[in-house]
Every structure is written in structure tokens, then in C-alpha cells.
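Bug #2210: C-alpha cell dump truncated for GTP cyclohydrolase 1?
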Amino acid sequence: MAYHKSEHYDLEITEELTGKYKDIITLLGENAQREGLLKTPERMAKAMQFMTQGYHQDAVTILNSARFEEHVSEMVIVKDIELYSMCEHHLVPFYGKAHIAYIPNGYITGLSKLARVVDVFARRLQVQERLTTQILEAIKESLNPMGIAVVIEAKHLCMMMRGVQKQNSVTTTSAFDGELLNNSITRSEFLKLISADLS
Ligand SMILES: Nc1nc2c(ncn2[C@@H]2O[C@H](COP(=O)(O)OP(=O)(O)OP(=O)(O)O)[C@@H](O)[C@H]2O)c(=O)[nH]1
Ligand SMILES: [Zn+2]
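Reproduced locally. Full output below:
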């Protein structure tokens, strides 16, 4: 399945999900036949497939599709990549930003591909910790860089709308590899650069 520009949905899955969402709406005490809800099960079926399309995408293939040989050794940072994911415990969103850095080792990748890799893993049922390390592992496999850092800051709606109901807590997760794991000066430089406001 591919969902790129023209959003194609698998017909069979859409039909089956539509029936199940109709049941869910009814079980929640609503009238699935009223006008405003008539098309909702199908909309949900499509929305949920969109938000889990990452299962059908391969991050390493995406990174490799714009991998260029380049002998630079300075850290590359893409920060503030917005992300929307879904917590695997409650299937409600968590959202925030990812900051990614790597130190090339003979190869660079297209900058947009780093943002695409965030989406590939964010558009699945996730926990923030796994999302963070999956991004790192994909970059490692494609580019084998001298160092990698991934930091994600996110707010979890399951902690805001329900449950503990805390509106202001932000969860930060990080994963480091190579120079960015072992060299504290390099890691500090990365952390300083992602916290700097360039606007
Ligand atoms: N580690 C981690 N936990 C998460 C993430 N998203 C949600 N959670 C937590 O998953 C936990 C599930 O705990 P349970 O006690 O099984 O579920 P619950 O009764 O709904 O918990 P409450 O949210 O405390 O009401 C909760 O503490 C959530 O805050 C995440 O990305 N990473
Ligand atoms: Zn949750």
C-alpha cells in the first residue's frame, strides 16, 4: 500500500474497518445512522490507515534513495521536525518534535529524508522510546555515520485528556550512537545547537 500524494486506501481493509467502526460508534451509545455520523466509520477507517501507513514503508530504502557520497565530517542537524504519532496503549495521539543529528562517514542523505524517516516510524502504534531508537537504527543502517543523535520532545494526549490529566508535562527521549554517545563535547555541542533559537 502507498499513501503518497493521492492517498490510495486498501478497499478490503477499508470496508472491514468501516463495519467495525460502525459497531464501535453504536457501542459508545451513539446512533450510527444519524446524518452526521453516516460517513464517519469510513472516514475513521481511512484516517486510521493514514496514521498507520508507516507499517508499509521502509525507512532505510527512503534514506538510501537520496544517499550521496560526500567526504565531510561536520555534524548535520535537522531540528524541530514536527511529528504526530499514536500511543500504543490508548490509541490517542502524542505529538511534538524530533531533532536529529549525524556526523557523516563518507555518505550524506537528503535532508528531507530524515524528516520522512520520522514519519515512517511515527505513523505506527508507538511508544516514544521505541520511536526514538528506531529512527536512530535506520540512520545507522543506511549511512553508518561516525555519530548519531535523536531527541524527541512530545506531549501525550493520553496524559492530558484522560488518566492523570496533566496538561503541561513534556516527555523527552533520546538515543545516541558513536561519537555522539562517547564524546561528551560533541554531544554538548549538539544539545546546545538544538536548544538555540535561530528565528
Ligand atoms: N514509556 C511510555 N509510556 C507511555 C507512552 N505513552 C503512554 N504511556 C504510558 O503507558 C502507561 C500505561 O499504563 P496502564 O496503567 O496500563 O494504563 P492506564 O490505566 O490507562 O494508565 P493511566 O494513564 O495512568 O491512567 C501509562 O502510564 C501511560 O502514561 C510512551 O510513549 N512511553
Ligand atoms: Zn497512552
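Output looks complete on our side. The mean pLDDT is 95. Marking as cannot-reproduce; reopen if the truncation happens again.
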